[in-house]
Amino acid sequence: MHETKGIIMKVTGSHAIVMTKDRQFLRIPAQAGMRIGQEVDMPASSKKRFAAWNGIGLLVACLALALGVWQMKPLFEPGPVSAYVAIDINPSLELAVDKEKEVLQVVPLNPDGEALVKGLHLKGKSIESAVTDLADEAAKQGFLKQDSEILVTATDAGASRLNIEDLEQQVMTSMRQTLQQSGIAANVGGVLVSQEIRQEAMTVGLSPGKYALYLQAQAREIPVTVEELKNQSVSDVAKQHGKDMKEIMQSMSGSKKLEDLLAELKEKHLKAIQQKQNNGNRQDNKKNRENEKDENKKDDDKKDEDKKDNGKDQSDSRPGWKGREDGKPGSDNGRPRAVIPFKDGDIDGNSGKDSDKEEHKKKNENEQKEGLEEWLKQFFEKRDSKHRQEENKNQDDQDDDR
Description:
Residues 274-402 are annotated as: Disordered. The protein is of the alpha+beta class and 402 residues long. The protein has helices spanning 55-67, 69-72, 111-117, 127-140, 164-182, 195-204, 208-219, 226-231, 234-240, 243-251, 258-317, 354-401; strands at 3-12, 15-20, 25-29, 39-43, 83-88, 92-97, 103-108, 149-156, 187-192, 331-332, 335-336.
């Protein structure tokens, strides 16, 4: 049986005077614990009405003012939100309803939604009446066309044990009936979404219904973007991406849980971020190795220049030492080569004292030894430089393979 709410204005013996929403005063049986300012439910069978704002009513109202009832509690303060109902045509909006399925709040979710509800008075109406008004206005403003796709979502707000499935079906039925009366053949689909999905939708700037559609599309690898859903109607997005999107629209209520799809999407995004970071690290490592190679090459070039200078100095300062044109020691088949020096006038190499020959021989041996040491030093330095270059090249090839 339908009940009416009222505020207790006066308690007298076995009866209490109650004022209803429409400013009528009713006398109801008093019950233990009743107090002025308390909100109560009144069954229709127990109502006895007084004329609105008659003398007694005015007297009671004055008494209530004197007792501070109006300061104690806002008159008929809206109850807690029991459910959220979102409707996507291209206008997207959300209705907050209480346990009586009356509209407490209307929130446009995009500019078209603001245009649709402008001038409509939906607060306080039943959800069926509000949906009827919305459908009529959407048709008048040209938002509803033949074969339009309309998506209804319902979310349990947890304030009462309201049957969300029944609420969703009730909204869809009201929408279909209104469209039928207007001669518009549109497709109306529905899906239940959790508070988690609703919050995620608000975070990315979509209605719960469009976000549910986005999750389903991502699961099927249909390239639908958040921006598309923000800026286009459900119908336009469905047409743009072909029959796969229409199949999603028709099977959303019986498909995989949206929470599971959300978890998969987050995991996919996390892997993409990690992959990007890994690629960045590999690029940094490769760049560092290239820089290291450049530095090593510069060092090797500098050493070669120093060796050239040293070779020239040795060629100029050592008597009898034959250096190559590049300043490196001369060689025969890779071995250092030295020429025995001769004194002035010793053209045949046989003249001069034996002691001078012995001295020249020792000097020649020392120069050969020094030349060999210099050659070995250059040989090992070149070998080490070549090994470093090969190691860097192998490392780059391995990174490219990964």
